[in-house]
Amino acid sequence: MEQFRYESGQLHCEGMAVDALAAEYGIPLYIYSKAALLGRFEAIRKAFAEAAPIIAFSVKSCSNIGILKVLQEAGSGFDIVSGGELARVLKAGGDPRKVVFAGVAKADDEIRDALDNDILMLNVESEAELDNIQNIAAEMGTVAPVALRLNPDVDARTPNAKTTTGKKENKFGIDLMTASRIIKNIALSPNIRLLGVDIHLGSPVNSTGPYKEALNKLADFIRDHRSPRSQLEYLDIGGGFGLLYRDETVPTFQEYAEAVLPFVKKTGCKLILEPGRSIAGNSSILVSQVRYLKDNGTKHFTIVDAGMNDLIRPAMYDSYHFIWPTKSTRTPPSHLFGAADAPEYIAREAADAAGGGGREMQPDGLIVTDVVGPICESSDVFAKGRRLPVVNRGQNLAIFSAGAYGFSMSSQYNSHPRPAEVLVDGETARIIRHRETYDCLMRGEELL
Ligand code: LLP
User: Which of 203, 236, 253, 382 to mutate to test the pocket of ligand 1 (most atoms within 8 A of CB)?
Assistant: First the structure.
């Protein structure tokens, strides 16, 4: 987070003042820090250096080709889940030999495309999919490299149940019994080359326990199923490394590595990681302008121009994103800024949520307000009962930790053109996606 900091009362991204960027590129605006992206990528590489893993950045978390190019140049591979994501990776100059392709419903065209482009492996999620890949590879006269995505039936204890993927009630992966049968019969699929096994437990996995639990099962599984026809040389542990949004205790990359590496050693596998959130999440903010303030006698609302169409996480998962004005002389009371009063601020928020807070100025000089967007849905709320400094119409707010599953999950709902995306590198900023226009909203539509 050190790439986002307040200097002379102004929020900066690296060497650029955020308000100046907002004035130049308009609002709402996604601002990414190149140094933050690379810093996180390098930190993962360093923590896992002993295993020299393929770090396959999870494209779904942040899919702009400008971002993918930055990571590709740093040596990143990519975890994809669609033909569209493969197209993005190739456009960004990504190396297909470092691409892994997951997803429960891969289309025939997507499979052909992946094989044509010689990606490292398809992470297969069912027996039916494996049969289909066998048929397609036979038709193409090729051999398809695959890993089996195993469902270890481990609870990743994600903050929101919607993002847990490694339990048997989830649609993802193949249960170990079925996987065992598949491997024993692999000779019946001559156009399949079984390269390894894969898991993805959920996102975020804010402790190392679930990895250990799953890898324990996998290590035994690998030991029991190695044969000349199934060398199982790759162990792909998926994504899920946590991110500090509020006050979570998130293991360091070092701690994740300490949990994972013994299993890598034990199995002798090559390691693949698929981090998304932990690289992109705190590498970007969404800047939004205050349009109106409203007090209905019960509640105070800060109405901003960005909406759930731009950042859906609070509406969809009740996710917490720290919000603070881009102009402020006070250190934002957040762990993101290492602020000493962060615990106190968070405790007051909890008290406010329980009904103790008010709309009036609080003794700490903050008011209690709901930060809401323009979309015609009651769920279009970024923050409920949040303490904020008094702001005026026209002032900008920064919504932090917006880089992962922010823009990539955005939509044009309510016919709002999507915001621009800008990548800051030191003292320069480059547009990596232009703000959409009304023409973009209607592209492909026909008047009959
Ligand atoms: N690999 C696979 C197969 C995945 O499904 C995912 C994320 C990742 C890697 C990357 O996980 P990460 O390192 O980012 O935790 N939209 C939700 C998160 C959904 C995650 C989907 N899969 C959110 O905004 O919290």
Answer: 203
